[in-house]
Design a protein that fits this description.
Layout lengths: L1 E8 L4 E4 L9 H14 L2 E4 H7 L14 E4 L12 E4 L2 H10 L4 E4 L3 H9 L5 E6 L7 E3 L10 E8 L5 E7 L2
Bound molecules: NADP nicotinamide-adenine-dinucleotide phosphate.
């Protein structure tokens, strides 16, 4: 099973404005992100990102009418939605995806969750779409304490005249 991390970032490495707004990535990023989530059938997200998707109709979720795995340490969070599965850690998310015989999973954010998966060495490949803007303050791409990860560049691609996609694999 391959584990991909997919992020849209500003040129200064933010994934959301300080109020949590992440409506600024381009339509090309959105299309590429949705295509890979639907191909995988298994997006994984942190609880704060889940809180944001929870305000939207399910048709706007990364895997529309399919499975979503949510990582939370909380005992009080619960859901009866058949397409949402709650797990207690990044490792549990991977174990659940394996049990469900997924070939590909996509870690979809946010920053704390990206960092948690990288820190635990659970990621195989990364896609980063760099959008042409910066915010002085915001939510950083990777936030999970101290870790160091090395990458090998696989490909760079222009998604449009303005958006660059970097594709790396992780050196294990
Ligand atoms: N630009 C992008 O590509 C992109 C993608 C996704 C999201 N976003 C934005 O990112 C923002 C949210 O990011 P964020 O960093 O604040 O939060 P987040 O990563 O979405 O969620 C953090 C929460 O996930 C759970 N979690 C993460 N790691 C865990 C671990 N190792 N063990 C157990 N639980 C863990 C915890 O939930 P509990 O507190 O419940 O324990 C934690 O508080 C939103 O504004 C969203 O719009 C941007």
């Amino acid at each position: 099973m391959k584990v991909i991390l997919y992020a849209a970032i500003t040129v200064n490495g933010m994934i959301a404005k300080k109020d949590g707004n992440s409506n600024w990535p381009s339509p090309e990023d959105f299309a590429s992100f949705n295509a890979i989530c639907r191909q995988s059938g298994c997006p994984i997200m942190g609880r704060r990102t889940f809180d944001i998707f929870n305000t939207l109709p399910f048709t706007e979720w990364p895997n529309t009418d399919g499975l979503h795995i949510v990582v939370t340490s909380s005992d009080s969070l619960s859901t009866s939605h058949p397409n949402i599965r709650l797990v207690k850690s990044p490792k549990q998310a991977i174990v659940l995806a394996q049990k469900l015989h997924k070939d590909l999973v996509v870690v979809t954010g946010g920053g704390q969750t990206f960092g948690s998966f990288l820190k635990e060495n659970l990621i195989d490949e990364i896609f980063i779409d760099i959008e042409p803007l910066a915010f002085g303050e915001g939510i950083p791409f990777l936030s999970a304490g101290d870790f160091e990860t090395k990458f090998d560049l696989i490909e760079t691609k222009l998604l449009s005249s303005q958006t660059i996609q970097l594709h790396y694999c992780i050196k294990k």
